[in-house]
Amino acid sequence: MNKFKVVLFDLGGTLVRTVEVQEIYRRILEVYGVQASSEEIAKAHKENEKEFDVKDMIRWKESFWVKWNARVLEKLGINENKEFLARKIDELWWNYAEVEIYSDVSKTLTQLKDKGVKMGIVTNAFEKDYQQILQKLAWTNYFDVAVGINACNKAKPDKAIFLYAVNKLCVCPEEAIFVGDSVKHDYEGAKKAGLKPLIIDREGKVLADVETIRSLDELLYYFKDG
Q: Which of 1, 6, 110, 177 has the fewest CB atoms within 10 Å, measured from its CB?
């Protein structure tokens, strides 16, 4: 009998990818006649990462990304219609992100589902954002649970968000695998919560001393029959 009953996944960078963040900004700003180079946007975004963290997401909730966008615009020297543009970037983000799933995802998820494995999403995203992604991919009712920051007012790597998900599925933490692409938020958080953590490292870039898989189909090893 298999020890594991559940697989939980991070979303962005694990199951789905988008065009680069700076390109999404550039495209939306261009719609409103505002020009900014991808290089400048990438630099501003990087600087924001030093000033904001997940605690700010919890505190500001859905207004977080509007504040983030406004700060990016300030760094770009764009102050005219700044608040309007910050809201529009948030509102239109997923229309310009070109969300797509990685090539190893569909077949693996189908095989896990065929084996009766429960599956879920645990993401540091707000419900309005991850629901748009799931809707675009026709995954709205695909997963047994989807948990974001809104669900329990916590964010990865806080163990509470992982435990919230496993409790929703009525399993013990040690019966769940968590797959993500961030050592800090996904691997360490899941480990602290008592889940088995795995890092998906498709390009072989992770140097940390953690357990990795190169392709999602390696998950099937944990659910072999017999």
A: 1
